[in-house]
Each structure stands twice: as C-alpha cells, then as structure tokens.
Amino acid sequence: MTRGRFITLEGGEGAGKTTQAQRLVERLRAQGIEAIRTREPGGSPGAEAIRNLVVSGETEAWSAMTETLLMYAARSDHLERTIRPALAAGRWVVCDRFADSSRAYQGAGGGVAPEVIEAIDAAVVAADQPDLTLVFDLPVETGLERAFGRGLFETRFEAKGLAFHQRLREGFADIARRHPERCVMVDADADPDTVETRLWAAVQERLL
C-alpha cells in the first residue's frame, strides 16, 4: 500500500491554522483522498494528557527545556498512536502544529539550543518528517489581537510578551528559509477564504 502524505500547518498565535486544517481535510476528501486532521500538542489520548500539563497554568510554569521534553514526549505518543498508523494505511495526515513549533517556541522563543532540539527530533521523529509544511505568516500584533478576540487566551503561550512572539515569527521564517524543499510560506493576513485558496494552491503544486 502506498504511504499517505503528511502535511503540517505552522505559525504563531491567531494565524487561523485550526480553521484551515479542517478546510484542507475537507478539500482533500472532496478529491477522493482519505485524510484525517490532528493537532499538537495532542492527537492521541496520552499526548492530550500531556497537553493539559504544558499549555495551562502560569506563563512561566515550565522552563523552555522542560517544555521541549514534554512536547516531544507527547509527539512520540502521537506518532506511535495516530500519525504512523494513518500514514501506513495510506491516509493523508493534516496536523495543526508539529516539530517546527518546538523549534520556534522552545528554540527561537525560549532559547533552547537548536542542536539539542535536533538531537531529540532525530530520535523521536526520525524519518517521519512532514512531506509539506505550510507556514502561516502574519504580523504579531494581528495574530495576538485575533487570539485576544476569542475572549480568553487558550494557552499560556498566547500570554507571553510581544518580544517572545516576534521571536516566534522570525523563527518560523528562518525554518522556512532553511527548508524550502518542504516549507511554503503562506500570507495569513487575509480573510479565511483567501488563505484557504493560498493553501490549496501550495498543496496542488507540491503534492497533487
């Protein structure tokens, strides 16, 4: 059986990834492609339990290194229980965040050395890297305004300061520059329908 394709959606807070992940799955299904939507941290029962630990509480509840280890513990379970079985069965997987979020949030944002994250990634993710990563880009202030507009911050990461979120944006842009073979930058500073059109064009060009 042909292995499925693995698509990840990355970017800062308020970029609209969750909405677009669902829209992308619906588009793929309309093309006759069996696809599932998942998320990180989370995506499996064990990973969701770890998510509850890492995304809630005080902003400084965990150090960046501890966050890295927790995120990769969740990622390991997610891969074992959800992603790898789906890909092996020929399904396409659309994931709202994956390892690039660790590189950006704990690395660029939190200061964990890139070589530490890459060593852990090599052990946990190994060959199961995404086939395509769609990096949502928009001004930090716009993204935070959208997040705040939801009424409450959903995670402790959203409540970190403006400088942290600017480092995130720069970190994601740097990832895209260094990995053009799998990354496409998407201008997310637009209405959902326009962003959906941009995403679908990238998927068609790269994978269909």
Structural descriptors:
208 residues; five-stranded parallel beta sheet
CATH superfamily: P-loop containing nucleotide triphosphate hydrolases
List how many beta strands DSSP finds.
5
Q: Mind telling me the C-alpha Rg? A: 16 Å
Give the spatial strand order of the biggest sheet. 2-3-1-4-5
Give the helix/strand class: alpha/beta
Order of H and E elements:
EHEHHEHHEHHEH
Overall tally of structural domains:
1
Question: Which architecture would the CATH scheme give at its second level?
Answer: 3-Layer(aba) Sandwich
Major sheet summary line: 5 strands, parallel
List strands and helices in order, with pairings.
Layout: E1 6-11, H1 17-30, E2 35-39, H2 45-54, H3 64-88, E3 92-96, H4 99-109, H5 114-124, E4 132-137, H6 140-149, H7 162-178, E5 183-187, H8 192-207
Parallel strand pairs: 1-3, 1-4, 2-3, 4-5
Helix pairs in contact: 1-8, 2-3, 3-4, 3-5, 4-5, 4-7
Detailed description of the structure:
The chain has 208 residues and is α/β, with parallel strands linked by helices. The chain has one domain (6-207): P-loop containing nucleotide triphosphate hydrolases (Rossmann fold, 3-Layer(aba) Sandwich), CATH 3.40.50. Helices cover 55% and strands 13% of the residues. A 5-stranded parallel beta sheet has the order 2-3-1-4-5, sandwiched between helices. Helix 2 (45-54) packs antiparallel against helix 3 (64-88). 41% of the residues are buried.
